[in-house]
Amino acid sequence: MAKPRAKGDETLPQRRNRARPVSGDAAGAADSAFARAGFRDPTLVMHWEQIAGPEVARLARPLKLRDAEGGGTLTLKAEPGAALFLQHESRALCGRINTYLGRQAVTKLKFVQAPLLPPHPPAPRPRQPGPVPPGDPALDYQGPEALREALLRFARIRDRRA
């Protein structure tokens, strides 16, 4: 995890002359981004659809959490027009959030109206290879068997993409 630099400390990080996994730096950057938004535990953001339900998750997403003594305020970015509907459901939504987290973390919801970006579509499933078309050059290959099998697999996949 990268150490935060002090003001005026313009020294470059020590180079190790080898590649390091990005995951170490990415985890630190993600933790600091969640902390700036008030989420000590990022599970509220990461599992929002499971906590709030698919209907509410489609209309609102968590932006910021302010902790307080008796329970915090969760700021949600909501679709325009949906904030009024969600305000009426705030008691039930706070109950679901607190049940999921296992503590009295949220007592109040605040809504910011703005259009939400659509969620990322799921990755397409790989297609099953079909038969090798007749007349394909891979059928005429006379080399090693392992290479011939690889060429035939490629020909099956290539035919399905077209």
Report the biggest beta sheet as strand number plus sense, adding barrel if it closes. Answer: 3 strands, mixed
- Helix percent band: 40-55%
Tell me the CATH architecture of the largest domain: 2-Layer Sandwich
Taken together, the total number of domains comes to: 2
Spatial strand order of the main sheet: 1-2-3
Count of helical stretches: 7
Q: Which structural category fits the helices and strands? A: alpha+beta
Gap from first CA to last CA: 46 Å
What is the element string, with H for helices and E for strands?
HHHHEEHHEH
**Average pLDDT, to the nearest integer?**
83
Q: Radius of gyration in whole Å, from Cα? A: 26 Å
Report the count of strand segments: 3
Specify the CATH class of the largest domain: Alpha Beta
CATH topology of the largest domain: Alpha-Beta Plaits
Silhouette? flat
Regions with little confidence, pLDDT below 50 for 5+ residues: none
* Percent of residues in β-strands: 5-15%
Key phrases:
alpha+beta; 162 residues; Alpha-Beta Plaits; flat; 2 domains
